[in-house]
Amino acid sequence: MEHAIKRETAFVGIDTSKLLLKAVLLSGDEVLCKVLENDLAGYRWLRSWLQKNDVPVMGLRVCMRLDDPHSNVAARELAGMGMLVCDAQPGPLEAYARDCGLPSSMARGAVVLAHYCAAARPTHWMPPSPAYLELRLWLRRLYAVQQLRKQEMARLERHFHAGQIALHQLLRQQIACLDAQIRQHETAILEHVRRHPGLPRPPELAGNYRRIARDSFGASQAGGH
User: Fold this and answer.
1) Of 38, 57, 37, 39, which is closest to residue 47 (Cα–Cα)?
2) What is the pTM of this model?
3) Across the chain, what does the average pLDDT equal?
């Protein structure tokens, strides 16, 4: 184990935004910076840039803030290239920044992430399974349909109070169709979870979808409140 640690001579910190990746490479005594687009082409350019600087990407430790939603796709793609993506947890990272005499607001910066990566050697993150990603997409789609139903219910009340009977009846039929879609989504989600036992509990279930949480992840996880 000690031998493996000593062989690590390069570390990367990546600050993500919706459109850009700001990468800092620590390699020996060098500190190199690169700004790339936060898309597939940008991830490939990052790999090429590292290789041009004589840094092997396989097993390279890369620190990111995975609590940032703009990091999710980048983390999966870089892990797929063989890099060891590390999740820089906010608490330890901000404590490290304070120990360095820096304000906690700088903890998201790529330079701090790179130095934290070299100093703390955080354990690498495992990408979620395709089944887990599909579950989250199902839940987001269900949420979208439910939000549409809420909007239609508000319109239904307005049509009723305005005496717009034909519109009121038409909207009731549309809401019934949305109700059917919601039931279909819930059934599909439950079947998906049963086909893939052991999936982690997605964050979208926090405080929502009590039936799904209860039937799929157990009463102890579903209630909470």
Assistant:
1) 57
2) 0.67
3) 88
